[in-house]
Amino acid sequence: MKQMIMKVLLVGNGGREHAIAEAIARSKYGVELVVFANNVNPGIKKLAADYHVVDNLSHFDELREYVKKTKPDFAVVGPDNPIGDGMVDVLGEIGVASVAPFQAPAQLESSKYYTRELLERNLIPGNPRFRRFESEDGVYPFLEELGEDYVVKADGLMGGKGVKVSGDHLNSHEQAMGFVKECLSAGHSSVVIEEKFIGVEFSLMAFVDGEHLAYMPVVQDHKRAYEGDEGPNTGGMGTYSDVDHLLPFLTPEDVQQAKDISEAVIKAVKEDTGQPFKGILFGGFMATKSGVKLIEYNARFGDPEALNVLPLLETDFIDVCHAILNGELSTLTLSWKKQATVCLYVVPDGYPENSAKGEILEIGQMPEGVELFYSSVSEEGGVVKTTGSRSLGIVGIADTISEARVKALAGIEQVKGNIFYRKDIGSDELVQQRVETLKGVRG
Ligand code: AMP
Ligand code: GLY
User: Fold this and answer.
1) I want to staple 206 with a disulfide (CB 3.0 to 4.6 A). Which of 9, 103, 213, 374 is the partner?
2) Model confidence over 404-422: pLDDT tens digits?
3) How far apart are CA 112 and CA 128, in angstroms?
4) Which bound ligand lies closest to the C-alpha atom of 237?
């Protein structure tokens, strides 16, 4: 028996939002889901009582109208752009609280410089040497100062395309200067140039109620399009998490250092903006020779990271949402399935640069222990087609990373079409390589 009826507004339509929708649908409470989206996600649509499509999620007049019509009890906002544009503030003005931060604390994601400067001012560890530039003046001397290892970042949301790393995408100071010019002429008011960390990356997400953080299992993302970490950067081709909710190359002390940084940041951002950060804080960290460093913060779930962790969440997601909204996370002990996960994103041929659009995907029955999340696809009359971006997130869940990968691969066997995916994610070889890399870095 479902205990009560409530209405939840979900904003967004990617794989991440499908995973959120599934977590909501599993609730013991009777929840009616209403959706404000850019596109019809067939997985979310199936779970929704109402589904409204708009051209731009940040057209807040349409949002106000939709809220007036549907009267949700609260909202869960998935993607970064509407959060960065102040959607949570707008919803707050019309009486709808959100599991997502207001615009000011969400600067943790929307401004790279804000976050670096906040850490510096509050003496929080984890920062690289960094400087902000509003013109090309002084850039070259700072590059010379940093030598061979630096990163150039546009100061704003660029869907993961606003960052270039020396040695990977930039092979000379001249190329770096070219990218600085490109960012500034593309309308970014500034760029941040910082020291490049050497090590292994991991994602640590937490539910945050303004003060307390409740952590999710640690996840590793794979941003490069092709096997062996080759090719262009993407939104994330796949992810894994381990049975102990750590990662094979990390020590508990590494994770503790990351938690210490996130806790200090949540305190500092409230003092700085006068507004508590409520929602999901997603830290991208790097384990290095000299401790754990901060790569960036996001003010939302990761995609694919959400696809790994939400299926493991045993605590009712609606209880978690209420605890976030009411500042009661410290009274809730989260419970997670003690299993490993591997998420593999199925993407159209040519992704990310020349994605095949409108290609038919035939999707069979997923085997046991495999979850399928729809991402950027369209569906008409039961026919699913690619729309250009990542198409399907397929998650294997098992007692080891290795078995979870085998399950995810079995899931992908059920998908036919002009697609590709990375077979190596979660393989013993790749996981062992990460362990060796970090050992080498730490000496
Ligand atoms: P971001 O959008 O800030 O996450 O940057 C995208 C990617 O660039 C990250 O996932 C890292 O792989 C890389 N990156 C960003 N900042 C640094 C840094 N300071 N040192 C090394 N790699 C970095
Ligand atoms: N998987 C990285 C992100 O969501 O930004």
Assistant:
1) 213
2) 999 999 999 999 999 999 9
3) 12
4) 2
